[in-house]
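Kindly inspect the following:
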Amino acid sequence: MCGAACFTPPARRANKKRLRIFSSSIKIAESETQQVKSPTDVGTGKAKDEKAPLSEITEVLNERFGTQFMEEAQLFFQQIKEKACKNKQVIQTALANPLDKFELGIRKLIEDFMIERMTENDEIVTRYMSDQEFQGSARTILAKAIFTARRGRSPLMNVAAASKSQR
């Protein structure tokens, strides 16, 4: 028996030999970090979406749907985002999927977060309107935060610091 060499044409044997001569290993220094891109990027043919900060959400929604949301609506979306970022199911879905599959995977969760946020906001308003002590504390903290923001200091006041100064 002559083996595989009998069936390989001479030119091909020579190419294999040349390739073999030039083969070597790649050495990577330990300090270099190497990243491998996911194959989900290959062949999609889609233009990459620009990342829009939450401040642009109200602008986009108003433009596309004729709504009149103000900048305050951004805080609502920020609350949803913060809640979602702490949710184990959302985290696992984000780590295991590309953006398009992730979006489909959390559709119901986002609806649940929105309903939950609406309920929590309703609870705060109800408590504010019915509990004079709660109303007094909340009003003092909000007044200080608004006053400070309008006077050009930090736009976000630390609520803990505000409540300490109340004592």
Remarks:
- Residues 132-167 form one domain.
- The first helix runs from residue 10 to 22.
